[in-house]
Specification:
The complex is a heterodimer of chains A (about 900) and B (about 190).
Chain A: H1 5-16, H2 21-32, H3 36-51, E1 68-69, E2 72-81, E3 84-91, E4 97-104, H4 110-126, E5 135-140, E6 146-151, E7 156-157, H5 158-165, H6 169-188, E8 201-206, E9 209-214, H7 219-223, H8 233-239, H9 248-252, H10 260-276, H11 283-288, H12 291-300, H13 306-314, H14 320-331, H15 337-344, H16 347-355, H17 367-378, H18 392-400, H19 402-424, H20 432-450, H21 475-482, H22 486-489, H23 494-511, H24 514-531, H25 537-552, H26 556-574, H27 579-595, H28 598-615, H29 621-636, H30 640-657, H31 662-677, H32 681-699, H33 705-719, H34 723-737, H35 746-761, H36 765-773, H37 775-783, H38 788-803, H39 807-824, H40 832-845, H41 849-867, H42 872-888, H43 891-897
Antiparallel strand pairs in A: 1-2, 2-3, 3-4, 4-6, 5-6, 7-8, 8-9
Helix pairs in contact in A: 1-2, 1-3, 2-3, 6-10, 6-17, 10-16, 13-14, 13-15, 14-15, 16-17, 18-19, 19-23, 23-24, 23-25, 24-25, 25-26, 26-27, 27-28, 27-29, 28-29, 29-30, 29-31, 30-31, 31-32, 32-33, 33-34, 33-35, 34-35, 35-36, 35-37, 35-38, 36-38, 37-38, 38-39, 38-40, 39-40, 40-41, 40-42, 41-42, 42-43
Chain B: H1 2-12, H2 21-42, H3 51-62, H4 69-95, H5 120-136, H6 138-150, H7 154-161, H8 165-185
Helix pairs in contact in B: 1-2, 1-4, 2-3, 2-4, 3-4, 4-5, 4-6, 4-7, 5-6, 5-8, 6-7, 6-8, 7-8
The chains are: A alpha+beta (about 900), B mainly alpha (about 190).
Chain lengths: ~900, ~190
Amino acid sequence: MSLSETQIESIFHQARGKNSPAERSAFIDGACGKDSALRDRVIALLSAEADASQFLSETPLHESPGSLIDRYQLLQQIGEGGFGVVYMAEQREPVKRKVALKIIKLGMDTKQVIARFEAERQALALMDHPNIAKVFDAGSTESGRPYFVMELVKGVPITEYCDTEHSSTEERLQLFVAVCQAIQHAHQKGIIHRDIKPSNVMVTLHDGKPVPKVIDFGIAKATNVELTQKTLFTEFRQFIGTPEYMSPEQAEMSGLDIDSRSDVYALGVLLYELLTGTTPLAPEKLRKAGMLEIHRLIREAETQKPSTRLSSLMHAGTNAKDSSLATQIARSRGSDPRALSKQVRGDLDWIVMKALEKDRTRRYETSVEFARDIERHLQHEVVEAGPPSKLYRCRKFVARNRVAVFTGSIVVLALIIGLTTATFGLLRAQDEAESKHAVADFYEQMFTSLVPYRVGAVETRREVSGPVGYADLTVADMLQQAGPRIGEAFADRPELEASVRRTFGWTFAGLGSGVEAVQQLSQALETQRKILSAEDPELMRTVSLLAFAIYLEGNPKRAADLVRPNITGHARYGGPDHELALDAQRFCANLLSFCGELEEAAGLAEDLLERSQRSLGENHPTTLWGRYLVACMDIAQGRFEAGIARLKTVRTLTARHFPNNPMHLLSILRLAVGMEDLGQYDEALRDITATIDGTARRFGAQHPMLWYLRCIAARIEARSGDPASADRKLQEIQREQQGKISAEHFMASFWALTRTEVLLFSGRYEEAAELAADLPKVLRAGYGDRGTQYLKGRYLQGCAVLELGGYAEAARSLGAVIRDTERLLPSGCKEMPAFRLAYGRSLMGLERYAEAETQLLQAYESGREMRGAEHEDVRTCASRLVDLYRAWGRPEKARDYEGR
Amino acid sequence: MDEVKRTLSAITQGSADPSAAAEILPIVYSELRSLAKQRLAAEAPGHTLQATALVHEAYLRLVGDEDPGWEGRAHFFGAAAEAMRRVLIDRARAKGRQKRGGSAKRVELSSTALSLHSIPDELLDLDEALSKFAAVDQVKAELVKLRFFAGLTLEECAALLQISPASADRYWAYARAWLFDAMRSDTR
């Protein structure tokens, strides 16, 4: 099959000389005869020649100013780019006017380009919008290149205009909205631009006002080469000269239809550039990248939020070029980098990011929606875009209703933050948007109905009548008035009703309105129980919030019982070491330790410490909580040395890692109590004072916890020898508590407990007995009847009776205390020696010496084990034993305890 | 630099064999390469650096205003075409081939678009085809090199190759068809 190159060439040239295809074909047939290989080769070369019009050729641009292209005379070149050249030209007929004439560069099938243009011509003719440059005509030049004739726009690219004019962000947004509206107009006529970029969005001045003009409509489509697998890299590069603005679906090359959302994407890039001076994908990076890499970048590269881009430019730190770039970008927006980044953060970030979603179904459907969102932002309204926001919607309300905020000031803001934070955390993704609206509407109504009319000046406030006067309007009022409307507002949306109630409840709790908090949270829980399983995490969250509210309302016991199932619930839902399970366990253990239910609390605390050490690590706050709780149990069960050592570790670690965690103050409090118990009153007083100061500083002087702490401080003072001062302080606390909390509130019962103790120290037994009469009852209400608090209440009641000489009654009740304590707290408690001492004394009074001896000996031994032989209480116990043996007539035994 | 001038004038005056033109190749090559490097470094975004423009710049630097005569100029561009080809192919090889799918390829190379950014694949394909073509028809392949890599006109090429302009025209048509066919039917 060796063909003669000379023969081939000769036939090739002769065939080329033939005028018609028929003639040519006949010639080849004749010349090649039966040599089909020769024939095929010649035909292949001839076809190659026909197709290779541009191949290897020099093709200078024939057109130049002065040239006449059809009925247009070229005047001057006004632009040049990857696509080709733009001339200002004069149209001669039918009307004489100046136009822009764009000659597309070589390499395209001109016929196809023009055919595609013709196909869209009618649609293009329908476009009539002040911000769109009309496309009049298309044709082919003598050199065979396609050209387009457009309305002449004398302007500069929008980005250039804005930078030269130092347009502010707001001005830029306003221009941009007009661009979106123009694009929308085109979309409505069925025209997709496909190539929106700054150089296609020009700004011209009309009467000194900037008017954007979108140019090149229809051209991208006409010149668009299908980006399919078959397409060569060259075409990709040549015809899509600006991958920065290309949407992922355009880069996809999957043949996916390009629709209006691709334009929305490109608009997003344009807005990004207007705001930050940069495009999401850096052109330098794209230029260096290969085709596949470009595709990958467009499809996959994570887009930096505009504000992040701005601050990263600003904080480029060592890179002086970048940071000066940031300054320059900000300056051309009449701002400074920091302010600019702040301005863009939030709404504008979200709006841009929504437009730049890789998945087009998540973008704005249309450019007009995009524009509307920007307008909303400009008017401080809630924008469509955005993450499931925390503070967001209500911040908007604040911006729009400055008066209302002025009224409620910081408290309102705090409320609003609380509201949205709590509510939006629990919406499920599926109907999040819809729900957000429903909830936002409700809040808005709640606010606006309470604001009779907008008031500009302070004076007017007094004239406002209505349910609540402006000046008196508090957050609690707002919530109380809106609360009853929740049920009605969300009648058919129980999940939203529950979430809003939960928000209300939580906010009430934060405001210290415990009753309302418990009421709303209970209703939320009730509703959720109807629609959710008991171990649904949302329901469990409501349970823990309700438990916390109930605790704040004064009932740690009920709170503990309520939250206890959450431990297993969360564990089942998220695994045994799930953080929420551990947290529920922490909360429950803490509540139980508060009530003095030591057995269960200690078990939970030890388990918590072990699990959290394993799954969360040593320095995790939950692990520290575990340590703290184990330490508390050590002390509560009388292992003072171990407990104090552990608490000191917790105090050190929290001071280092979590100085603001309440655990830090609590560890100091527990240390103070431990020291007090060991008789080191000075240290105890110093620590408790520090805790009080810290709490007041961190949580405000009105925090209810302060009552508790001050009670303890008073008790220490009384023990250290100044019961009179202690009692004055306790009376002060009582005055403060009056009317604020119920008698069953654990703060009230703890106060009663403490005062009884102090009265006994002072020898004011009758008063103590009187106060102690109700003590077990009130203690049981808040702390339950299974813990040390309740038992201690009964013990103090017995003590008062004992001191007043009621031995029989005292022995009966104290005996019961001992039995109950042994039964409920078999691992012991630090109060037990005191209980036994009192019981023993009452038995002594009844001359039941043998029984008394048992109790006193046990009190002495266990007390010495816990606190050491030198401890005041232990020595008291020893002297009681001496008394006993003397009274019993066994002085030889008495001697064993003399001087101890 | 002067060596280039001397060699060219020696050829023009007949005191040196035309094959002496090969001696200036390394000089032209290194000149083109360093020019290309400089220009690429200073290049403004969006601007393309034309290969033939580089050749002309090299000519001005190496030969200068003094006209070495028609023959001398022709020899220079003969060397320059080869040198430019090597520069481009070196760059293309350094960038590496892109993997391309599809069967029939479309070829878009044109000398106005030929730049240092030209697509490696196409350049490498062209170079391959050109080597094969040189084995079949040395003169026509040389013509292609002169036109394509050095930017000479058909008349200039005809003079250098000592053929008639009409032949040059025909050679060019055939060479283009041959190469185009070779490149597009290359289905590797």
